[in-house]
Design goal:
single chain; alpha+beta; Aminopeptidase; Elongation Factor Tu (Ef-tu), domain 3; ten-stranded mixed beta sheet; six-stranded mixed beta sheet; 25% strand
């Protein structure tokens, strides 16, 4: 039996409390070769029986629950879905969380959040109650109501991937890791004689009320039982007296809801096997095992430590998979980019990692794609990639088109003695969107997860506040500081993980859409025959003060510059009309002003005229927020006329952002028209 594959399969299933069908069917299939009888009861719990053949034998029940925490759709608002939790969910780790809505054809969703550009510091300190959150599935109100009825369940998106050498990270390890362990136990016992009739239960609804265990236990009426579940693994933010180190053995529960002699027997057996065990005092606050509730049998608890149980990700000893796609595998076609559709080019660009100051991977890709079309190119001391493209009319350095390569992320600042990583954010990040998120670190893409203690250990007051950045930490599965430093050192950059993909009705979801969209537009234009000479600049360090653009503009010294960017969309339910700024799907954004620049009025009017004359939809900002490279370009040398053409993107500076594919194509078309218009003025 391939236990890693089984665990990966089980954790990949979407089966929240009350909707365990996929997990129940998989569990029954896996149990049949190992048991004499397998049944699924009317509640959906799966029960396997191994008979010992002795009349009057005692009945031993081993239980692990199949359900996971999740959500249920409660309504629709402007195409967004309102939802309620199934089980205990920490609301602090929900903003920008990716979910899967379990419709007949599952839908990807992102929990909506306002970008930091339109929030105050005080806003970002507060946890948002679940009742105020909504889920973006990229649909209109009519389509959302048709495709996602009220009552539809949803779960966290993702499966399992290795964390370090000895751990695994993934959703629903609570409690499918323990069910996989029970499968392993049955396999070991397959050809062995038993002294008891052995029942193995995959119960349902544990996360909401333990209904599955209660009803199944009434049917079995066991003499003995053990609830096999996860418990709280140790982490820097959790109390040591309530948590347990991973890799130090299973945890045996003791307390009033656990039978003493069974606990003692478990310990003796562990000693015989030379197995380390730990002890959890269960003071009666957690539900008793199914035998105690169902038939008065003797019960014990055998939890396994898991960190962050109920947040999106937990840890268990190792399994398969990996976070996110490998860069460079998503884009087909000619390596030069010729004929590659915009969306495919964008998938490749967004999969690349390029936090401010570490844009190498993005720059190398862009340089390779640009080289066949360039008259000349260079990388300046700040890391900007500057490409000169010859056109039909000589114009020198008169016109510069600009897009930034970098993205927001994090940087490791310290490694603790326990092997956890302290970090700070690079660029403007609302720390609420980082909680519980997977990351990769450095050029080796070392997987990690932004940790937070389990909701069971969080007080009511803590639940309402977002921890400060200095309380955050990264877990890479290291046993201690020495092991962590062998993989990651202070100064290593970290990158958010998000699979680039089409989303909803004509939308696109990925990390780093800001500003890989602008980079994609420039690459597509580079492939074309242009009516005039153009300087293409891919800037570095935009997210930390537009530093690259300052040097590039001073070096190129253009008369006119067009910045290709993304901008803040806040078109969410409950947000006042003017604070929504702009919206994906309504065309490129032509800015007259933002938080850093008053744009050249003549260029603004030119872009508007070109859009209207050519049937290209456009919009402008309804709220002054954000800024970009234009602010430093404008002030270069004797001054530069600047304009900005942006794509409206939801959840800017978050791991999962959303924009419109039609807007991206229209940006390309309008930029092409702008270059032609500038050429006509020569």
């Amino acid at each position: 039996m391939d236990h890693d594959a089984i665990l990966s399969r089980l954790c990949g299933l979407g089966a929240p409390s009350g909707f365990e069908g996929p997990a129940s069917r998989a569990a029954a299939e896996l149990l049949r070769p190992l048991a004499d009888e397998v049944t699924v009861d009317r509640m959906g719990s799966v029960l396997a029986l191994r008979r010992c053949g002795r009349e009057g034998a005692k009945r031993l029940l081993l239980d692990a629950h199949l359900d996971e925490i999740g959500f249920v759709v409660t309504g629709h608002e402007e195409g967004y879905l309102k939802f309620a939790p199934l089980g205990g969910v920490d609301p602090r780790m929900l903003p920008d969380r990716e979910l899967t809505v379990l419709t007949d054809s599952p839908l990807a969703g992102v929990v909506a959040c306002l970008p930091p550009h339109v929030q105050t510091r005080e806003d970002m300190d507060k946890s948002i109650p679940i009742r105020e959150l909504c889920l973006d599935v990229g649909l209109s109100q009519e389509e959302a109501e048709r495709r996602v009825p009220v009552g539809t369940p949803a779960v966290f998106r993702g499966g399992c991937f290795p964390l370090g050498q000895e751990l695994i990270c993934g959703k629903s390890l609570d409690d499918r890791a323990c069910f996989a362990a029970l499968l392993g136990a049955l396999e070991l016992l397959k050809d062995r004689r038993l002294d008891v009739d052995l029942y193995v239960l995959g119960s349902v609804c544990e996360e909401v009320d333990s209904t599955g265990a209660v009803t199944a236990a009434y049917g079995v009426v066991p003499d003995l039982c053990a609830a096999v579940d996860v418990t709280h693994g140790d982490s820097p933010d959790a109390p040591k007296e309530k948590t347990f180190p991973l890799g130090k053995g299973p945890v045996i529960g003791v307390g009033p809801n656990c039978t003493r002699w069974m606990e003692q027997r478990m310990r003796r057996k562990a000693e015989e096997l030379g197995m380390a065990v730990q002890t959890e005092v269960m003071a009666g606050h957690c539900p008793g095992p199914p035998g105690e509730r169902g038939g008065g049998g003797h019960g014990g608890a055998l939890p396994a430590p898991a960190v962050y149980a109920h947040p999106h990700r937990g840890h268990q000893p190792p399994g398969p998979g990996g976070p996110g796609p490998a860069a460079g595998r998503l884009c087909g076609g000619d390596r030069r980019g010729g004929g590659v559709p915009m969306k495919e080019l964008l998938k490749t660009l967004c999969a690349l990692n390029g936090v401010s100051g570490d844009e190498d991977q993005v720059r190398e890709f862009l340089a390779e794609r640009a080289r066949p079309w360039a008259r000349s190119m260079k990388v300046d001391p700040l890391g900007n990639l500057i490409v000169w493209k010859k056109g039909a009319r000589a114009a020198g350095d008169r016109l510069m088109l600009c897009a930034h390569m970098d993205e927001v992320g994090l940087i490791v600042t310290h490694v603790t003695e326990e092997g956890f990583l302290k970090f700070d954010f690079v660029g403007g990040v609302d720390r609420r969107v980082a909680i519980g998120k997977p990351v990769v670190l450095g050029p080796d893409r070392v997987p990690g997860v932004v940790g937070i203690k389990a909701i069971h250990l969080v007080s009511r007051d803590e639940e309402k506040k977002v921890p400060k950045t200095d309380a955050f930490y990264l877990d890479i599965g290291a046993r201690d500081r020495e092991e962590a430093l062998s993989r990651v050192e202070p100064g290593t950059y970290g990158f958010f993980v998000c699979t680039p993909e089409e989303f909803g009705e004509g939308l696109f979801k990925a990390k780093a859409i800001d500003d890989r969209v602008g980079c994609a537009v420039l690459l597509k234009l580079l492939e074309e025959d242009l009516p005039m000479d153009v300087v293409f600049v891919f800037t570095a360090q935009e997210e930390v003060g537009t530093r690259g653009a300052f040097g590039a503009a001073f070096s190129v010294a253009p008369e006119t510059a067009l910045v290709l960017e993304t901008t803040t969309a806040a078109d969410l339910p409950g947000v006042e009309g003017h604070r929504r700024v702009c919206a994906p799907g309504r065309g490129p954004v032509i800015s007259y002003m933002d938080g850093g620049t008053i744009y050249d009025r003549g260029l603004f009017e030119d872009l508007r005229r070109l859009a209207e004359d050519n049937g290209i939809p456009w919009q402008t900002k309804e709220y002054i927020a954000g800024g970009n490279d234009a602010r430093t370009i404008q002030r270069s040398r004797a001054g530069v006329r600047v304009a900005a053409l942006s794509a409206a993107v939801r959840y800017l500076h978050a791991p999962a952002s959303v924009g419109s594919l039609a807007d991206f194509e229209d940006m390309l078309a309008l930029t092409r028209l702008f270059v032609a218009d500038q050429a006509a003025r020569l």
